[in-house]
Amino acid sequence: MNEYHIDTTVSGRSLVELPDGGGPFPLLAGFHGYGQSAEDELAMLRQIPGSERWVRLSIEALHPFINAKGQPGASWMTRRDRERRIAENVRYVDAVIGRVTAEVPSGGRLVLHGFSQGAGMACRAALLGRHPVSAVMLLGGDIPPEPGDLARFRAAHLARGENDQLYRKKQLDLDVLRLQEVGLEPAVCEYAGGHGPTGEYFADAGRFLELLF
Predict the structure, then answer these.
(1) From first to last of its 213 residues, what are the pLDDT tens digits of the chain?
(2) Does an H or E element contain 83, and which?
(3) How far apart are CA 90 and CA 96, in angstroms?
(4) Cα–Cα dist 136/126, whole Å
(5) With the CA atoms of 18, 187, 127 and 10 taken in that order, what torsion angle do they form, in degrees rounded to the nearest 10?
(6) CA-CA distance, 209 to 26, in Å (whole number)?
(7) pTM over 0.85
(8) 7 φ/ψ angles, rounded to the nearest 5 degrees
């Protein structure tokens, strides 16, 4: 049996909301969780206090399917052809961010927000992408093992619900240690809840974002 990989063109979609005024504006780019859509992540970004002063960019994964709720959703990747998918995703995210920053003056500040599976994509974009970031914000998802200098994050906000069974306390502690080893002291938010944001999370995320504005 022979296995072939054929390069082809696949379109990806993203949603962009601009603040009032003339800019330049900082850019807050979000990555949704498994089976979610760009709309889901944009709704999450909107709930972060102060985000209305940022360009809110929600990037949808390239692999669509119908999720368990019978709704359109998407996945960033699976274990199959892992390295190939990572490279494709990073090129895609680079292109999306490049187009937005070419059309909207951003002032050079870029923060990446990822929820669940999207947390890994936010990290990969920061580590392997061509756009320098000001910070990463990870909710309910760990830092993947891809090679790269974690100091490229520059600043980090890590969050999990105390009852989250997908992103456990032990993994959060390991992620904090990895960042400390490269000289970063991440902001950590552990809130009452499960695998998903609450008002407590959004308030803490807003305080972190305010420091970067």
Answers:
(1) 998 888 888 889 999 999 998 879 999 999 999 999 999 999 999 999 999 999 999 999 999 989 888 899 999 988 888 889 999 999 999 999 999 999 988 788 999 999 999 999 999 999 999 999 999 999 999 999 887 899 999 999 999 999 999 999 999 999 999 999 999 999 999 999 999 999 999 999 999 999 998
(2) helix 82-103
(3) 10
(4) 8
(5) -40
(6) 11
(7) yes
(8) -70, 135
Residue linked to tokens 């961010």? 97
Give me the domains of the chain, ranges plus CATH numbers.
14-154 (3.40.50.1820)
DSSP string, 93-162: HHHHHHHHHHHS--TT-EEEEEETHHHHHHHHHHHHSSS--SEEEEES-PPP---S-GGGG-SEEEEEET
Following CA atoms 200, 126, 59, 117 in sequence, which dihedral angle do they give, to the nearest 10 degrees? -60
Number of H helices and E strands in the chain, helices first, is: 5, 9
